Every structure is written in structure tokens, then in C-alpha cells.
Automatic annotation (TrEMBL):
It holds the Pfam family AAA. One of its GO terms (molecular function) is ATP binding. InterPro entries: AAA+_ATPase, ATP-dep_Clp_protease_ClpX, ATPase_AAA_core, P-loop_NTPase. GO terms for cellular component: HslUV protease complex. The lineage of its organism: unclassified sequences, metagenomes, ecological metagenomes. It comes from marine metagenome. This is AAA+ ATPase domain-containing protein. Residues 37-212 form the AAA+ ATPase domain. PANTHER family: ATP-DEPENDENT CLP PROTEASE ATP-BINDING SUBUNIT CLPX-LIKE, MITOCHONDRIAL-RELATED, ATP-DEPENDENT PROTEASE ATPASE SUBUNIT HSLU. GO terms for biological process: proteolysis involved in protein catabolic process. Transmembrane segments: none annotated.
Amino acid sequence: MDRYIVGQGEAKRAVAIALRNRWRRMQLDGVMREEVMPKNILMIGPTGVGKTEISRRLARLADAPFVKVEATKFTEVGYVGRDVEQIVRDLVEIPLTMMREKRREAVQAKAELAAEERVLDALVGDTASQSTRDAFRKKLRDGELADKEIELDLTDAGGGLPTFEVPGVPGAQMGMINLNDMLGKALGAERTKHRRLTVAESYDVLIVEESDKLLDEES
């Protein structure tokens, strides 16, 4: 913490010890784990003293989700509703996104090769000879075809299924529970959209799409 934040020594020490205790607890088994109790942290102070920055930096160091919420309007007893539940949804959705990005990085190399093959298919067709593909592959890697336009069938992120709301979880269609994705894959209703892009533009889109395919295969 000292490496990233100037001042607030007591606060940094307190949050560091709290995080260390949680880590220690994770390393223990059985009865010993119960002897190391994790504690939540409450930081109090005027605006601008570094509460948010300490929290954000701690989350980054621990590779944990961070959500900043203005909770003043939620302090009334018995207050419920979409805004309050959105806090919980964000806390669940952010780590899911973080984990998916990590897994995408793990399959990045394979996804890049698969994306390259799809670009080659769009350029020369999937029936072209190996020598033709190799010649175009060299041009592709040398950047000679970056501005050339190609046509691709890409997954339609909008989906074609109606939006549902989960009973007891208002607004679930907004993020945490993506029923369009779940039902679309289960029913084989994943739709594609024909798009025209330059080779350079297509790479990022194709790499994400191929990464997701590889992740689905591993699941």
C-alpha cells in the first residue's frame, strides 16, 4: 500500500492486516480456520482523505471486485427496490467479468490463430489451396491487407429471444442473469449477423468470439 498511496499510515496498516487475516484464514483447515475471524472494514473521514483510493487499491492488489455506491439514499429502514438490488448484482457481475477476462487471456493464442483462419476464409475461401492460404497469410501478418474489406457472419449480441424478468430478482435481465444467452445456447438459437469490416477491424471482434467459443468448449 505504501508503494501506491502517500500518507494515511494507520488506515493502510488496518486494511492490510484485515486482508492478511483473510488470506491466513484461507490457508487453514477445519477448527483452526474458525480461530482466525475475518473482519469487515469501516473507514470514516471527510471527503478527499483517501478512503475510496485505499479501497480501490486494496481491491486491485487482491484482484477483487470493486464497486463504488452512493448509499445515502438507501439508509431508510426497509428500503428495497431495483437500485438497492443493483448493488448486489454489480458485486456478482464484476467478478464474473473479471474471471471471464482472465480465462480469455489463457486462450488468447488459440483464439488469435482461429481468428486468422476465419479472416483467411473470408479472403480466399475455405476451398483455396494451402499455397494460396500461405501466401495470403504472409501478407496478412505483414499488414498488407489491413485495409481490405471482408464479409463475416458474426454472433448477434442482441439475440432474438424476448427478455424475461426473474421472479424475486427485479431487473435481472439487465445484467447478472442473462437469460437471452442462457436460453439461446440451450435451444441452439444463437443468431448471426452478416457484417462488412476491414481486416484490421475484424480481428478484435473475431478474437473475442473465438475466445468465447473456446471457453464454452471448456465449460
